[in-house]
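Annex B. Sample input.
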Amino acid sequence: MKKLVFNLCVFFLAGVPVMAQNASVNRVPAVVINAFQQQFPKARQVEWDRKQDGTYEAEFNVGLIGRDQTAVISPEGKVLVHEEEIASSSLPEAVKNQIKVQFGGYRTEEAKKISTGHAVAYEVELENRKGDLKVRFNADGKILKERMD
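Annex B, continued. Sample output.
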């Protein structure tokens, strides 16, 4: 058992430098990196991507067992969108109730909180034997978008 734990530790520690940041971080403007670091000071395992529209996307985790997060930042350093994976139990009651009413035969697979400026939405992946659905709700439980996945 000790050998297994030791091997797992070695495997994990050997991979940490690789996961730290994507090499393309050198191409990200300092204003974007500074804005990101101010907004998310505890971000770990950051991977940067430049989008076709000129914005920058950072995928990252916060904390030891952090949930996946994504931030889209303008070239001027403004955080445009922040997506954060959340537990389904953290969804607003109105969203949970709407899921029960509209999608009673489905099981919640994954949930995200999406902040765009001052607006907050929740995207939920639902699944059952017939297929998977992605549904976006506002905080009041109103369905904003629904599609088969």
